[in-house]
Amino acid sequence: MTTAELAERRVLATIGIGRIVWGATTALAPRTVHQTLLAIEYPGPDQGIWIKAFGIRDILLGAAALHPDSTVRRATLRAGIVMDILDAGVVAAAARRGLPRRAATIGMLLAGGTAMFASAGPQIIRKLG
Questions:
Q1: Keyword set for this entry (predicted)?
Q2: Which residue of 9, 11, 40, 65 shows the fewest CB atoms closer than 10 Å?
């Protein structure tokens, strides 16, 4: 395995595990995520289905990021970056419409941070390693 492949695999493993943990938390304990972490009312008009759906999406993306086939992992990396950028845009729009600052900050850190790590992580690891 080349240094570039190893760096990419490390980033994807980190993101994959993180997505699985976050996804399971949001899918299985949405009330805790909303009330404790984000400090917003739960359930909203959607009865909590959206946070659960995002949780399931992240579990599936996390599992795909750990897939043994490098083609699947790379496609997952690209898809995850696009979804995280879109998520950050949705959070920014929600913040303009009254999403509490704490929830918006956490949303932007999670979505934007993951997108940046997925984009730059392999190159950073190669340079450090």
A1: Membrane, Transmembrane, Transmembrane helix
A2: 40
Q: Which pLDDT value is given to residue 129?
A: 64
Q: Count CB atoms within 10 A of the CB of residue 69.
A: 9
The sign of the CA dihedral 46, 49, 51, 57 is: negative
Domain hosting residue 25, numbered range: 3-128
| Angle value at C-alpha 84, between 83 and 88, nearest 5 degrees | 115
Q: Which of 18, 99, 108, 120 is nearest to 59 (CA)?
A: 18
Q: Return d(Cα 55, Cα 76) in angstroms, integer.
A: 16
Res. 44: pLDDT tops 80: no
Question: pTM here?
Answer: 0.83
